[in-house]
Amino acid sequence: MSEAVFIPLNIAILTVSDTRTPETDKSGDTLQACAEQAGHVAAVRAIAKDDIYQIRSVVSQWIASDAIHAVLITG
Question: Which domain holds residue 31?
Answer without folding.
Answer: 10-74
